[in-house]
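During the second year of the project, the team shifted from modelling isolated chains to modelling whole assemblies. The rationale, set out in the original proposal, was that interfaces cannot be judged from single-chain predictions alone. As a representative example for this report, we include one of the complexes processed in the last quarter. Its constituent sequences, exactly as entered into the pipeline, are reproduced here:
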Amino acid sequence: MYRYDEFDRTLVNERVAQFRRQVERRLAGKMTEDQFKPLRLMNGLYLQLHAYMLRINVPYGCLSTRQLRRLAQIARRYDKGFGHFTTRQNIQFNWISLDEAPDIMAELAEVEMNTMQSSGNCVRNITADHYAGRAQDEIEDPRVWCELLRQHSLLHPEFSYLPRKFKLALTGAPHDRAAVAVHDIGLRMHHDAQDRPGFEVIVGGGQGRTPVIGKTIRPWIEPQHVISYVEAILRIYNLYGRRDNIFKARIKILVNALGIERFTALVEREWEQIRDSGLQVSQAERDRIGACFAPPGYETLDDCSEELAAWSTVEPAFGTWMRSNVAAHKVPGYAIVNLSLKAPGRIPGDLSADKMEWVADLADKFSFGELRVNHRQNLTFVDVRQADLHRLWKLLDPLELATPNIGLASDIIACPGLDYCALANARSIPVARDIGLHFARSDKLQQVGNLTINISGCMNACGHHHVGNIGILGVDKRGREFFQLTLGGSADEHAALGDRLGPGLAQAEVPGAIEHIVDTYLATRQGDETFLQTYRRIGIAPFREAVYGQDNKTRRVA
Amino acid sequence: MALIKNGRETIDPFIRIRPGEPLPDDGALLVPLCVWQNHWERLVCRRTAIGVQLASHEHPEIIGDDVDQLDLIALEFPSFRDGRAYSHARLIRERYGFAGELRAVGDVLVEQLHYMQRVGFDAFEIVGDDPLADYETASQDFTVWYQATGDGRHPASALRRARSRLRDPS
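Output from the structure prediction step:
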């Protein structure tokens, strides 16, 4: 993990002191809400339906157990005893009072965390592959570059009042687990013709009301130039991005308006002027940060496939969990374990303070005291000895953290929706709960295999519905909530936006419609095709017929 | 409204000229870009100080070659949310090499002074009960920054380098 040095610590403490003063001025009536709003937003503080919400950065998803215990303490002391992990590798607390926010930030600073720029029209939390540094298919650990970009973008004097928010995601592996193509800038590592590792730079991707798959602005760039290239993109965006209409202000709109060729020419011209400036990263700084991400003290172990297979035979539930929740590790004898925050009936991404502490204890015992928050709203232990897997499973199961559904239909991404969010049109959480319980009662979950279902409570798409294999969008029609389904979306290296299936459905009809879609897939799949592969082969028509045709029970409602 | 320049409250010597307004014969003038473009020959012949004000949609590249003839460049923030002038300021200082007064005008909030100072502004038109006190507080908010800009302050990375050299002189 990156550790703050005296400079990082001073900066965060100064920011907390600044915000404390701003809050005091606001509470004393010396600042209007209009003037205060952008200041609190750039410190991650939103005013929601019932209270203030505080969004805390988990930079590129890396969290220590010390930090997780502090989050548990904050959840108890300042909130209602739980937190919510989001698709941007952040954690949110939903019941915060304004006067206590500076104290929370001070407590976070003690464990090297902050809330800076988790909102506002600036560079947001940098996200990354949650298997970074551990994945078998990885070229290089991208976290050195994540951290350099984090520092470079923090309180950047030129880019703190961009036209709109700006999100960056990185992956060091060809298989994209970080959805880089739907970010303002996505960086994907690969080798060039001379076999040198570098980043493909993707720009102008995004979701929201105008979903766009990002376009490649540069097929390959040496890592040492990444900072200056990002700076050039940000400068062109800051200069030319639209400011007259908040819905047309994201960089994707600028890229589409200019066309990728003209946009690229502007960025390249700017970059030529700054590429050899002080923005190049020195080897010493790379080494200093790189040392923070050095592998933990692994033991020399052999893979224990046979032992694990034996356990799976004796306890099939363990085998099921192994297949869905455990991933291969690059070091022999170790494994990556995903903790599902999607137990049937639970709110996706929510975790109680008690469970945070249990998870911290388990990560100390089984995974070198660190864990990851991933963009599918689950947690990940990245360094578990294979020999410990069965024991860990036994301990996770009673905590409802071993639901064997990672990547499966009940591993649902859902935004907080109208239960909390001031922007939402519809309640996402009950829909997620209905679908989760529906699959818990049937035996189809494992049979269906990989299938992502993503739910957003409004077109801002925080629940990533555009890139769910099945996307669900909550809409409000004359005061009633409806849910529009899309099919065929994907957030991986073959990213695609979903196609609209048909008219919106009432909440009660959604699980039935999902059932019809899944049955259609099961009836038509060839060999070991995934849902997405079948969809891409047969198209939307059979699914539309299954949901809206004469012969089924799903009523056409809007 | 107060003008604070290099940390002091100052009387503004510049007379603001609106588009179409006749140019007085004497005195320092602050003119909008269109006046500069239409009357620059007349303006540079005067012996008095001259300044140009750019709106946030006016790219400073237009006056990039003229900066040696100017004493003041004023950049307008039509709303504190419009951040274009931050980029404009850096280009004016770092790319076009302007060394005169760079002034922030318009919706200039004290909370943004730190960023403005870092991108090269040295003068600010601020509204408030005690603008100088606000200015001084805001100027002291931060002592550490990650970015190198044209203001010459050392970013954290440079201080880290210096520190490690001190510890390990080899």
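The longest strand of chain A covers residues 470-477. The mean pLDDT of chain A is 95.
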